[in-house]
């Protein structure tokens, strides 16, 4: 229950960040940065269809696809995120709209994209999106092994073409720039959130170090045995995957208790199974 509550709290934080980027930067300057919201903006301008109706119909169709191709867990979380975002945007528009921080379209594109990408990446780490073309991107990412950000850029392209036709080249191009930035930044943020340390420790104190990693750091480890190419001595190599905070804790321990050890550290952007992200969520 605590794990589930934590997941939904993190998703809620992502919703708030995305809503801020959309309401403060994109909506107030009529920039369609892709997605169902961009499509709704275009159809409202061309056909007079209410954006809310367009978003509801599109999301219903896409959520059905999410349940079929991705799974119920993803669908439930994304329904919460989608309706949470819609409710928050609606509430903000009724109380504070319009919120205009700047009319500089370059600043709008940059800061709006950063916020939307950050919020989307936060939700993605919890296996959820705000619906819309994010669901299409998730399906493409799962079945065609395309990075999520690139898949989102691909699925948003048609919306941008419609925006260029509807709102003119200038606003359409800024929308295209925003979509590109969002797609690129999402992958960067996801890599940053998932960043772990792959640590290899060459030591003569196998039990001391291994027991500390298991009992105090709270991670597993694998022990290899070999022989030094120069010294010709038998040695032990301990391999473990840690978060940044756990690595700092281990490093302090090694400084105090095994300062002669040889340690290599590599950054890894994704770890699956054994106490990390489930391989079934990929």
UniProtKB/TrEMBL annotation:
Protein name per UniProt: YitT family protein
Subcellular location: Cell membrane
PANTHER family, A to Z: UPF0750 MEMBRANE PROTEIN YITE (PTHR33545:SF9), UPF0750 MEMBRANE PROTEIN YITT-RELATED (PTHR33545)
Transmembrane segments: 7-32, 52-72, 105-124
Keywords: Cell membrane, Membrane, Transmembrane, Transmembrane helix
Residues covered by the DUF2179 domain: 219-273
One Pfam family, short name: YitT_membrane
Origin species: Clostridium taeniosporum
Superkingdom assignment: Bacteria
GO cellular component, one term: plasma membrane
Recorded topology in the membrane: Multi-pass membrane protein
């Amino acid at each position: 229950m605590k794990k589930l509550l934590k997941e939904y709290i993190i998703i809620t934080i992502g919703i708030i960040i995305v809503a801020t980027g959309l309401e403060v930067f994109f909506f107030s300057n009529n920039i369609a940065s892709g997605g169902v919201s961009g499509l709704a903006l275009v159809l409202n301008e061309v056909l007079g269809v209410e954006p809310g109706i367009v978003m509801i119909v599109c999301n219903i169709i896409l959520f059905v696809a999410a349940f079929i191709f991705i799974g119920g867990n993803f669908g439930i979380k994304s329904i919460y995120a989608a309706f949470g975002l819609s409710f928050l945007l609606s509430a903000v528009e009724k109380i504070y709209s319009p919120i205009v921080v700047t009319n500089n379209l370059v600043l709008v594109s940059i800061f709006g994209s950063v916020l939307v990408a950050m919020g989307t990446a936060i939700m993605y780490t919890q296996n959820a999106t705000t619906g819309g073309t994010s669901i299409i991107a998730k399906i493409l990412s799962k079945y065609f092994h395309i990075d999520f950000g690139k898949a989102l850029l691909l699925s948003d392209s048609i919306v941008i073409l419609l925006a260029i036709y509807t709102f003119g080249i200038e606003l359409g191009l800024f929308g295209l720039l925003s979509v590109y930035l969002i797609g690129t930044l999402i992958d960067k943020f996801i890599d940053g959130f998932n960043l772990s340390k792959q640590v290899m420790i060459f030591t003569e104190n196998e039990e001391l170090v291994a027991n500390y990693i298991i009992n105090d750091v709270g991670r597993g480890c694998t022990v290899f045995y070999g022989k030094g190419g120069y010294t010709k001595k038998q040695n032990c190599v301990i391999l473990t995957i840690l978060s940044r905070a756990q690595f700092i804790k281990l490093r302090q321990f090694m400084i105090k208790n095994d300062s002669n050890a040889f340690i290599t550290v590599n950054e890894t952007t994704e770890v699956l199974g054994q106490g990390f992200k489930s391989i079934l969520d990929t």
